[in-house]
Amino acid sequence: MRASLFIACYNDSLFPETGRAVTRLLERLGVELDFHPGQTCCGQMHANSGFRAEAFSQAKRLVRLYEKDEIVVIPGSSCVAMMREQYPGIFQELGNESQRQELAAFLPKVYELSEFLIDKLQVEDVGAYFPHRVTYHASCHGLRGLHLGDRPFRLLSKVRGIDFVPLENMDRCCGFGGTFSVKNPEISQAMLTVKLHDILSTKAEFCTALDNSCLMHLGGAMHRQYAAMRTIHMAEILASTEDCPTEVLT
Amino acid sequence: MSAAILDPKLAPPFRDAVLPVLRNPMLRKNVAHATQVIQNKRAKLVAEKTDWQELRASASAIRTHVLENLGAYLEQFEERCTAAGGVVHWASDANEARAIILDLLRQENATEAIKIKTMTSAEIQLNPYLETAGITVHETDLAEIILQLGKEEPSHIVVPALHINRSQVREIFSRTMHLENLSDDPKALTAAARHYLREKFLRVPTAISGANFLIAETGAVAVVESEGNGRMCLTLPETMITVVGVEKVLPRFQDLEVMLQILARSATGERMNPYTSLWTGVTPGDGPQRFHVVLLDNERTSILARPKERQTLKCIRCAACMNHCPVYRQTGGHAYGSCYPGPIGAILTPQLMRMEYAQTLPFASSLCGACFEVCPVKIDIPAVLLDLRADAVNIERKEAKRAFDLMYLGLRVANTIFSRPWIFHTAQWFGRVGLRAFTGKDGWIKWLPSIGGRWTHNRDLRGLPSQSFHEWWAARAKETK
Predict the structure, then answer these.
(1) What is the pLDDT of residues B330-340, one digit of tens each?
(2) Mind telling me how many Å the CA of A250 is from chain B's nearest CA?
């Protein structure tokens, strides 16, 4: 199977290890990967900040970039939610008929990572080994936007050596919310304090998620207080094997 | 805490308004506790309804249908209500509504009025207006009494005194009712309120109410409540004046079947609210003999004219959105500067104000979607928030002050950066070099200037790695060649 990666702006710049882990994981599962170096951003930051015209200009670029691909895999649920929930409305408002047709052809090709593994590759056991205590933070976009359901848990449950510990109040937002975290930093912090209390109470070594945006926020706070926990994108857990453990441990 | 003045025209931006709240642990504990209790009760009762999603779909369809045919249903309501002996008044804005109500009270020679809890009256700031005109208003809902006697403002649309705990209630009652030995036992507190109220119910012949629903088919008005104070106000007085937003109409009596099932579960986590009162015009010898309905527009028709935002008017004021909102649960209602707080307030208030005021409210959300998930009439609040954000930015685009707004400029620059891959990659290089000075030995950034400081004031940021993903991919491709 052949698939093309979308590595979002912040993943490309700040979390390249996530993209590397996705590459390692999917190639191990026999997927032939493409990557278009022309990709930048899905436009979510602008759309969520009210800059709809700017979001549209980024969105239409992105849709055209994947014109010839058959499958697009994205290790970030909020980018996928942006495409599915917001692109249609934005293209309706600002696009023309041919752009809307391009979008209609693009959307069915898009898979969030756990959707791609479970729904498309139909694999739960990806051959991962990660002998650590791990908790899972459900990002709001994955939970309520994409309805990922039990996919992340099915994947984690098949990881050998893992000591999975469920998170209390899993459906509660961590307080990141994109530009919300800098437009309203005080209230964002208040939400983070509550969330972090639940996360740290699990006494896990790692808090994982399918979205580095929440993890940037949670991990930044963990680092600030030198907490005995780190954040790690789930792709890095799934890519990890006995012979080749995850990068964060090497 | 001293009461915030809940007037969107005077309210500070949301970011400033939350600061005193975040420093008030008692208020935050009260709000977090109360919303958690309601959340749990609701979850249990929603779970026992196997057709909950179908009920939501029906409720949403009924409300959508009403909004698409609002004019016809309002005219039908007016006709049926008038035929049953009610008098219907139309108020285009808050000023008109207040003037109509004052005029009606003067016709009655009223110097006092008893009142059923109504957020619509808070929206038009009726109480202070009537007080200035020399009419004493007595709230009769327990929470509203607490607020009125304690000189507080509502912080929730269903449980307006949610930010106040019972020892604070004891203090307010003991001080204002002169009950020195009052305990904070809920029974003792409600007994004190009952004693205080009974005298008013028996003495004051004029009542003011809001309404949960108007029934077009019959001309009936419906109020749902928990305490029976509403039932008292609807039976004892000689005159009843109801002020209600034009969007509250339902086509048929039968539609209550869906609405009452979904409202009580969503609002208070009850299968059925304790008191549901319906009255149709005037019945000789039974209940108020003079009955007026003031139908309030107050920007509702301009919201109706906006296809994407129209769904805001589907709201049945259950408050499930605020009970589940992670922002509201930290702040309570006062920070929203309006009698309509939480997610629904964040979309309703700026629209009631035509976006001139309260422009920071649509940004007071992390867009987590919990509000939409629990909304019994399926208002896609995050989508409306996004539309209103776009409106706010479109206003800002025309303002000269945008040249000094770093958020605005930053997002414009970011758009240029994302417009071409080579600009994006150049910006990454500059970012890497520029941030080097701020990056510590462990590779993390603990302090950034300007807007960056809004991130680092409570979180660290990992420094930019020396190789981006696309550089790694290119290097790997070269190696394998």
Answers:
(1) 999 999 999 99
(2) 15
Residue to test with chain B: of A5, A9, A11, A40, most B Cβ within 10 A: A40
B15 and B38 belong to one structural domain: yes
Q: What is the spatial distance between Cα A205 and Cα A230, in angstroms, rounded to a whole number?
A: 6
Q: Domain end: B398, B417, B449, which one? A: B398
- Whether residues A20 and B454 touch (CB distance < 8 A) is answered with no
Q: Which residues contact B160 (CB under 8 A, 6 or more apart)?
A: B117, B141, B143, B144, B147, B154
In chain A, which residues have their Cβ closer than 8 Å to the Cβ of B363?
Answer: 50, 180, 183-184
Question: The sheet that has B213-215: what strands, in order across it?
Answer: B249-250, B213-215, B220-225, B275-280
Contacts of B464 in chain A (CB under 8 A): 13-14
The answer to whether position A221 is within a domain reads yes
CB contact B355 to A (< 8 Å):
no
Strand, coil or helix: B223: strand
The whole-angstrom distance between residue B362's C-alpha and the CA centroid of its chain comes to 13
Q: What CATH number is associated with residue A153?
A: 3.40.50
Question: Could you give the ipTM of this predicted complex?
Answer: 0.97
pLDDT of B2 > 90? The answer is no
- Say if the Cβ atoms of B15 and A86 lie within 8 Å: no
Kindly state whether residues B257 and B343 are assigned to the same domain: no
Nearest to B368 among A173, A187, A217 (CB): A173
Q: Do A220 and B459 touch (CB under 8 A)?
A: yes
Q: How far is A247 from chain B (nearest CA, A)?
A: 13
Share of chain B above pLDDT 70, in %: 99
pLDDT at A246: 85
Q: How far apart (Å, rounded) are the C-alpha atoms in residues B248 and B251?
A: 10
Structure tokens belonging to residue A231: 């954040």
Tokens 């941030």: give the residue.
Answer: B435
How many beta-carbon pairs under 8 angstroms link A with B? Answer: 189
CA pair distance B209, B39, nearest whole angstrom = 28
Residue B414 belongs to domain spanning: 404-480
Cβ(A100)–Cβ(A108) below 8 Å? no
d(CA B155, CA B357): 19
Please count the structural domains in chain A: 2
Interfacial A residues in 95-114 facing B (CB < 8 Å): none
Nearest to A191 among B330, B369, B386 (CB): B330
